[in-house]
Amino acid sequence: MKFNGRNVFISPSAKIGKNVKIGDNCTIYDNVEIGDDTVVCNDCVVGEPLKAYYSDPAYKNPPTLVGANSIIRSHSIIYAACTMGAGFSTGHRVTIRENTNIGESCSVGTLSDLQGNVKMGKYCRLHSNVHLAQGSTIGDFVFLYPYVVMTNDPYPPSTDIRGGFIGSYTQVGVHAIILPGIKVGENCLIGANTVVSKRVPDFSLATGDPVKVIMDVRQYVAMGKGNPYPWMKRFDRGMPWQGIGYEAWMQQQTVKPAP
Amino acid sequence: MKFNGRNVFISPSAKIGKNVKIGDNCTIYDNVEIGDDTVVCNDCVVGEPLKAYYSDPAYKNPPTLVGANSIIRSHSIIYAACTMGAGFSTGHRVTIRENTNIGESCSVGTLSDLQGNVKMGKYCRLHSNVHLAQGSTIGDFVFLYPYVVMTNDPYPPSTDIRGGFIGSYTQVGVHAIILPGIKVGENCLIGANTVVSKRVPDFSLATGDPVKVIMDVRQYVAMGKGNPYPWMKRFDRGMPWQGIGYEAWMQQQTVKPAP
Amino acid sequence: MKFNGRNVFISPSAKIGKNVKIGDNCTIYDNVEIGDDTVVCNDCVVGEPLKAYYSDPAYKNPPTLVGANSIIRSHSIIYAACTMGAGFSTGHRVTIRENTNIGESCSVGTLSDLQGNVKMGKYCRLHSNVHLAQGSTIGDFVFLYPYVVMTNDPYPPSTDIRGGFIGSYTQVGVHAIILPGIKVGENCLIGANTVVSKRVPDFSLATGDPVKVIMDVRQYVAMGKGNPYPWMKRFDRGMPWQGIGYEAWMQQQTVKPAP
Prior knowledge:
Strand content of chain A: 25-35%
Number of helices of chain A: 1
Number of strands of chain A: 30
Mean pLDDT of chain A: 95
Largest sheet of chain A: 10 strands, parallel
Strand order of the largest sheet of chain A: 1-4-7-10-13-16-19-22-25-28
Shape of chain A: globular
Low-confidence stretches of chain A: none
Oligomer: homotrimer
Largest interface: A-B, 43 and 38 residues
């Protein structure tokens, strides 16, 4: 019932890979490239034109790339001038604005709102309703939970955009806020409802408004679970170390080629 | 102007009741049943297929039931394998994922996001933008206000899903968070922005981050209003005791049949 | 590629100005008036009928006005009985319910949800995902950042609607909550995650849960920036004093006509 070509518009300049499925009511704009085996569900927009489209008769849509083996769920809008690596997936009603670059195997949850000029590494998971201001930067293997907000305006309103930064492997709990230009280190666990108002060092368990570092996250003991952090030693679903373990995978990464 | 059959797709296997209206641009998937006198507004999806649909050629859509006298507002998405009781209503752009069971006369507000495997009793009201993680359970006559989040992961990321629980008659204020596996009792009032990090007993007025029980909610005095809780004695709009009062209605519920 | 008239429905009673563009899959209901040079992007609804439409055969759609030079981005829903002044703009997936009056040159961000009976002055900026309860009132030149919520129910659930009030020039940070009936003064700066539980006087820098006034915002010193508030002396993008400065503009406003 999906993918019957009802009310679909695909630009002649779009490059659609092999075995790509495009849902009903979709619009694929100029200069979009979609990799092989990707699914674009119903009612999606890929390559949404930038604002100049409405006023500049000579407007040309910048190129947009959705990697292979991706799934874009229904009612999502991806602007032009974005790049999403292979294995990308979204929930429903996602908005990704221009000049966003997302590495391989990331997911962006239902209703999330990436405001543009966002950089995200690989294997990140944004759950539902995450808001990333312009200029936000996220490392690899970062998980952001619902209603996390990264901000960028140090004394609103201003034109002084200072995006925040979240280091690799860090987990940020629901409703947490990263204030403008703040850097959260690697391997941190940020509690629900935290307001991150100052730099948080690597391996911090931090929470509160304003944020306080409670302990080294490696000291955290969960009832009956020992030390659950760093989490990579106990969680592998969808991660590149799935089935082999993080340490074995890391060793593979650092093996030097024979001379 | 609505309901003129423009760009509508209804599966031949769907069972559509009497006097049902289906809006333009809607898709009703396989094995959906819609009760009499229900309205499905424009741009809705009912019976959205589960993930296996995209990979399993033998996929069969599990049955989905929308009760009679319901209204599903525009741009909402209801997955397959859900049951919504009679008198159900939604705002716009609601997402309800698979294996969600909702009792009679509930409403789910604009932009709310039910992640699946959610159980909700009868006469509940979810206002706008409520997020319920997988495994969440809600009693009867529960009201959740905007941006309330129920979470389920005790040490993220993990595969140890522990949904929260909210007892009947409880009210949860805006931006409140229920941490994983936490039980909120019956007849509670949870303040705005509360982080519910431990069990809250019945009849608690509780607030703060982390949550503290302030008083028995029955002791709470509102200026010029006396003791407004339990709320059932003073509020009846849309409730089954409307016009007769809660106590009279309760007596009806407990009348034993003649021997 | 936009604006090719695919799957568009425009009521014969709608009045469409000169040089208006209407995107694909749009519905413009009865008694909508759209001013000159306005753009309505794809998949929008303007003049969404009120609830009585579904039950009253004699229902007539009340008039709806979108001012000239506006841009309504895709998937937005504007109910009937609303008035938006000239130069209005929205993000994607905005919901604006009935009896909302918005002054000139305002913007409402992606996913924002105005619940109806909202009054907003001129040159206001609502960023993404702002929620305004019924009865909310906002002055001129007010900026609300993501996930700000204005509430209206003093002892939920009740039928005693008491909308909040935000004075002109005030800035409200992300995830802040205005409790029912509370008045925030003019020229305030409300911090992220604040719960505004009592009246805040003009020119306050206020933050916390519950809110505390920290200082007169005019005393606030930003590193290397002096006193950034009131902000009108240093920020003019899109404001009526752009290019001439706030003080010169204010003098123009107060010049009395020659006798």
